[in-house]
Write a structure and sequence with these properties.
Strand content: 25-35%
Subcellular location: Cytoplasm
Mean pLDDT: 96
Organism: Mesobacillus subterraneus
Radius of gyration: 24 Å
Binding site for NAD(+): 183-190, 206, 273
CATH architecture of the largest domain: 3-Layer(bba) Sandwich
Helix content: 25-40%
Number of helices: 14
Catalytic activity: N(6)-[(R)-dihydrolipoyl]-L-lysyl-[protein] + NAD(+) = N(6)-[(R)-lipoyl]-L-lysyl-[protein] + NADH + H(+)
Oligomer: single chain
Keywords: Cytoplasm, Disulfide bond, FAD, Flavoprotein, NAD, Nucleotide-binding, Oxidoreductase, Redox-active center
Shape: globular
CATH topology of the largest domain: FAD/NAD(P)-binding domain
Number of domains: 3
């Protein structure tokens, strides 16, 4: 131990200040714990700084630009629409700054000690926190690990000036004329779509049969169609083989349909998934059990194999979603404070900010059938909704999945404008054990997109009003 490195004591120590860690810290402090949070980079983690928030700012700006160019159907025609991409980046940075400043204010307001540096476990009650200049020991009664994940790097596509991960893709200061996106999952589709909205020529290479493989084909095909309208090319069943880089661009080699092809572009974005940040924490020092994939094993209270250490977010099983991490953070904080909280993923939503937006919660029709649950699937199209028509955004549908025996809502899928907001009502319906009749009998304001939920519920109970049965 460094001379003068006297251990600092705390009740609960949280490692990582992303959407899992900072939420866990706040909830633990609310429950009477003395809390210390350690973050090696920036408060807010990947989500706030280089993920969810900045990508949505970029996507929103892209939609504004598109609307300015293409609103002739509504009688609006703009001359000489210009794009200052550096101002777009300034807007995005301003949004991020407001939110990260807000997180700092919330932590301080809850009397949480914020420590900058990298944490390393010494034993089950001790960590060392190191920065460039010093090291400090902390002792704790309980710890919550919330270190998140990082983009996976493909050996043939090492990150560089023109081979970018999601962070680099979000921070380009000039609008590229062309990009190749490797990976048609939600990150690749969102960022590819955002740049396509600004007029960049986008090529998406996806190894599977379809982009957005986790969603029903009827949903992903709408996104595919709109990407193509924006001039994007989508190549599925494609294997990215390698890249040649020059000062001015890249040449990507890929294989599809048994043939080798090349594409020239300004940049290549590598969006093939994320890896849990569990490898540099000294977890082996403590004996924390992990899976072969490097994720930490937890119980229903987010407790690891070491009883006073908890783990949440991207470093445990399940999808790498910010809202999942926040939810688990609250559970872990309540569990260590002695409350009987347990995780329940029944109604965890998944959202893609594509065009149109996609959202799902609970069971899909297919998943229900695979589990032997007899269900009814009821659909209602956005094209039959007054608000969607007035927005001139009629692509899409809402599908309600209900149990045949009692009409209870067990799942929903939405493709359409504001799907990301609309899915919340369906999540609540599932959590509350509501039936399709409960939704159908709930008065929804008119004219709103929210009425589509009510209309689909009416289809489910066999009494649709605004489509013919």
């Amino acid at each position: 131990m460094v001379v003068g490195d006297f251990p600092i004591e705390t009740d609960t120590l949280v490692i990582g200040a992303g959407p899992g860690g900072y939420v866990a810290a706040i909830r633990a402090a609310q429950l009477g714990q003395k809390v210390t949070i350690v973050e090696k980079a920036t408060l807010g983690g990947v989500c706030l700084n280089v993920g969810c928030i900045p990508s949505k700012a970029l996507i929103s700006a892209g939609h504004r630009y598109e609307n300015a160019l293409h609103s002739e159907d509504m009688g609006i025609k703009a001359e000489n629409v210009t794009l200052d991409f550096s101002k777009v980046q300034e807007f995005k940075a301003g949004v991020v700054k407001k939110l990260t400043g807000g997180v700092e204010g919330l932590l301080k307001g809850n009397k949480i000690d914020i420590v900058k540096g990298e944490a390393y476990f010494v034993d089950a009650n001790t960590i060392r926190v190191m920065d460039e200049n010093s090291a400090q020991t902390y002792t704790f009664k309980n710890a919550i690990i919330a270190t998140g994940s990082r983009p996976i790097e493909i050996p043939a596509f090492k990150y560089s000036k023109r081979v970018l991960d999601s962070t680099g893709a979000l921070n380009l200061q000039e609008l590229p004329k062309s990009i190749v996106v490797i990976g048609g999952g939600y990150i690749g589709t969102e960022l590819g779509g955002a740049y396509a909205s600004f007029g960049t020529k986008v090529t998406i290479l996806e190894g599977a049969d379809e982009i957005l493989n986790g969603f029903e084909k009827q949903m992903s095909s709408l996104v595919k169609r709109n990407l193509k309208k924006k001039g994007a090319e989508i190549i599925t069943k494609a294997l990215a083989k390698g890249v040649e880089e020059t000062d001015t661009g890249v040449t990507v080699t890929y294989e599809a349909n048994g043939e080798q092809n090349k594409i020239d572009a300004d940049y290549v974005f590598v969006m093939v998934g994320r890896r849990p940040n569990t490898d540099e924490l000294g977890l082996e020092q403590v004996g924390i059990e992990m899976t072969d994939r490097g994720v930490i094993k937890i119980d229903k209270q987010c407790r690891t194999s070491v009883s006073n250490i908890y783990a949440i977010g991207d470093i445990v099983e399940g999808p790498p979603l910010a809202h999942k991490a926040s939810y688990e953070g609250k559970i872990a904080a309540e569990a260590l404070a002695g409350h009987p909280a347990e995780i329940d993923y029944l109604a965890i939503p998944a959202v893609v900010f594509s065009d149109p937006e996609l959202a799902s919660v609970g069971y899909s029709e297919q998943q229900a059938k695979e589990e032997g649950i007899a269900v009814t699937a009821a659909k209602f199209p956005f094209a039959a909704n007054g608000r969607a028509l007035s927005l001139n955004q009629t692509d899409g549908f809402l599908k309600l999945v209900t149990r045949k025996e009692d009409g209870i809502v067990i799942g929903a899928q939405i493709a359409g404008p504001n799907a990301s907001d609309m899915i919340a009502e369906l999540g609540l319906a599932i959590e509350a054990g509501m039936t399709a009749e409960d939704l159908a009998m709930t008065i929804h304001a008119h004219p709103t997109l929210g009425e589509i939920t009510m209309e689909a519920a009416e289809v489910a109970i066999g009494s649709p009003i605004h489509i013919v049965k």
